[in-house]
Amino acid sequence: MREIDPDLSVVVPMYDEEEVLPIFFERMRPLLDGLGVSYEVLVVDDGSRDATASMLLAAAVDWPELRLVRLLRNSGHQAALSAGFRRARGNHLVTIDADLQDPPEVIAELLAAVRTSEVDVVYGVRSDRSSDSWGKRTTARMYYRLMCRLVGKDIPFDAGDFRLVSRRVVDAVNALPEDGRVFRLVIPWLGFPSTEVKYVRAERAAGTTKYNLSKMFRLAFDSVTAFSAAPLRLATWLGLLGGVLSALFVVGALVVKLAGNSVPGWTSTVLAVSVIGAIQLLCLGLLGEYVARLFQSSQKRPQFLVGYDSLEDQGHKALEE
Ligand code: UDP
Ligand code: MG
C-alpha cells in the first residue's frame, strides 16, 4: 500500500530547467531518502522545450519514487501546481521550486512543524530577501500589501510557493472549480490552521528565471481578479463623479449663457458631451455590477468550510462503539 499512499508528495513544477536538473537530483534524493518517511517526487514538466523531459525520463529509471507528469504546453507555474495537486497521492504535500532557491533541507523542518503543532498548513517564509533585486523586493511588498486587503486575511508576507499542506487542504483546493487559482492566496483564504517556518532563500542554483515580465503581470492580474471585482466597479464611481461634474458644468454653462457672453453653440455642446459621457459611464458601471455578480457566482467557491463539527464527531464515536 505504501507506494500508492506515501506520507509525503513533493511537487516540483519545472519549465526548461535542464541546467539545474543534475544538481536537483544530487541534492534532493539523499535528502528525501533520509527523511524517514515514504515519499514521491512528482515533477510537473510545464511543457519544457529543452532537455528537461528526456533527463527526467532517464532519471526515473533508477529512482522509483520519481513520478512525472508532462503538460502539453507551457501553462504557467500556478497551472503546473494545480496539476501537481490533482495528481499527488501523499498524505502531505510540499510544493518546491526546481531551482533550489527554497533549500530542500527545510522540508524536514516543515514536516517537524506539522507534527508538533498539528496544523494543516506550514508556510515557508523568507526571513531575508537580500538575494532578490531591489525592484523585485519593492514590487513584492506592494503585492502582499494589496493582497492582504483584497483577500481580507493575513497573507503571510514573503511566503512564496514553498509550503507544506495536509491532505485535507489538497482535497479542499481540488474541490474549487475555479480556473487561474493563485495558490499563495487561495490557501490562506481557505483558513486552515497554519504556522510558519522561516528560511533564507538562496540564489538560483543554475539557469535563469522562468518568470518573465508577462508572467509576473499574469500572476498579478490573476491575484486581483480572483479576489476582487473592484476594477469592474470603477466605472460606476467614475460615472457618478462624471454625473456630479456635468451637473456643475450645466449650471456654469447656463450662468454664462444667461449673462449673455457665451459663444453660440458652446452651451449645447458642453451639455451634450458631459451628460452623455456621464450616462455612458453609469451604464458601463451597471454592466460591471452584473458582470461582477456573474463572475463571483461562477467561481463557485464554498460559502464555508467545516473544521470541526461536534454533531459529526459524536456520530463517528457512536459508530465506533
Ligand atoms: N515554472 C513553471 N512554468 C513557468 C515558469 C516557471 O513551471 O511557466 C517553474 C520553474 O521551473 C521553477 C518555478 O516555477 O521551478 C519558479 O520559477 P523561477 O525560479 O524561474 O521563478 P523566480 O524564482 O525567478 O521568481
Ligand atoms: Mg526561482
Tell me what the structure shows.
By secondary structure, the protein is of the alpha/beta class. It is 53% helix and 14% strand. Strands 3-2-1-4-6-5-7 form a seven-stranded mixed beta sheet, sandwiched between helices. The two termini are 27 Å apart. The C terminus is likely disordered. The chain binds uridine-5'-diphosphate and magnesium ion. The site of uridine-5'-diphosphate (UDP) has 17 residues, from strand 1 and helix 3.
Provide keyphrases for this structure.
single chain; 321 residues; alpha/beta; 7-stranded mixed β-sheet; 11 helices; disordered C terminus; binds uridine-5'-diphosphate; binds magnesium ion; transmembrane helix; Glycosyltransferase_2
